[in-house]
Design a protein that fits this description.
The chain is an all-alpha fold. The chain has four helices and no strands.
Amino acid sequence: MEWYEDEAVWQALDDWILCMWNDFDILFTALRPYHNDFPLQTKAILFGGIGQFTATYVKMRNRGNDEITSYDLAMASVANNKLIEKLMSQVINTSIDNSVQNMKE
């Protein structure tokens, strides 16, 4: 059996996200005024990754979606987040630049 086929995994994930959401919401609200003070990596992971995922997951669960559907929609929202896209672009560009530099040496 794979992890995504295990009902206990989905229940544990669901319980954890729903229980931590209020604390995350308080934290992200407190951090929001300092959003531009963080480097791209931190902003992308905190706001575009963890924050986006948990906010979307909770919203989808509150709309009556099951755990798997909520997870899939939350992952899609992270993949489409502008901060994540910008971070991925930066990582790819750095990788290409490093490869080109290594070819020159």
